Amino acid sequence: MTTSRPGTRSFASTLALGLALIGAASMLYYEFGLLIPRASEVSAANGLKFRIGFGGDFYPVWMTSRECLIGHHAPYSSEITQEIQIGLFGRPLDVRRSTDPAWQNCLLPLRVLCLPSCWRR
Fold first, then answer.
1. What is the mean pLDDT of the chain?
2. Number of C-alpha atoms within 13 angstroms, CB side, residue 75?
3. Phi then psi for 53, rounded to 5 degrees?
4. Rounded distance, CA 91 to CA 107, Å?
5. pLDDT at residue 8 is higher than 70
6. Residues 15-54: b if buried by 16+ CB within 10 A, e if exposed
7. Rounded Cα gap, residues 15 and 11, in angstroms
């Protein structure tokens, strides 16, 4: 039977907490200190407004779910796509402009779009 020395467990817990805090701080620095400012610069250089600092990958799901469930609109319509583009970039994207990012209509399956309805209750 092995016995642990007193204080070993508290040192390991303190070390784990310290490493977790360092990891969290470095992630926040990357997101808010490097990624968002650079994305804003690139968007401004291309004539786009970078409106959503983070969460831009969830915004299309939220917007289409809201319009489908509350507004009773078709989630795959070009109007919804245009609203999403205005919400993300400040204007509708133009396929003829080489500086605009490539964008397709909402390609998410309907079951994914209805997922936020679970939180509506």
1. 76
2. 20
3. -65, -45
4. 20
5. no
6. eeeeeeeeeeeeeeeeeeeeeeeebeeebeeeebebeeee
7. 6
Nearest Cα to Cα of residue 115 among 69, 51, 53: 69
Tokens 């915004």 found at: 59
Amino acid 23: pLDDT: 96
- Taking only the tens place, the pLDDT of each residue in 67-103 is 877 877 777 788 888 888 888 777 888 878 777 777 6
Rounded CA separation 50/100 (Å): 12
So what's the pLDDT on residue 15? Answer: 93
Cα separation, 85 vs 79, whole angstroms: 10
Domain ranges for the chain, please list them: 1-45, 48-121
Is the pLDDT higher at 78 or at 20? 20
Contact 91, 48 (CB under 8 A): yes
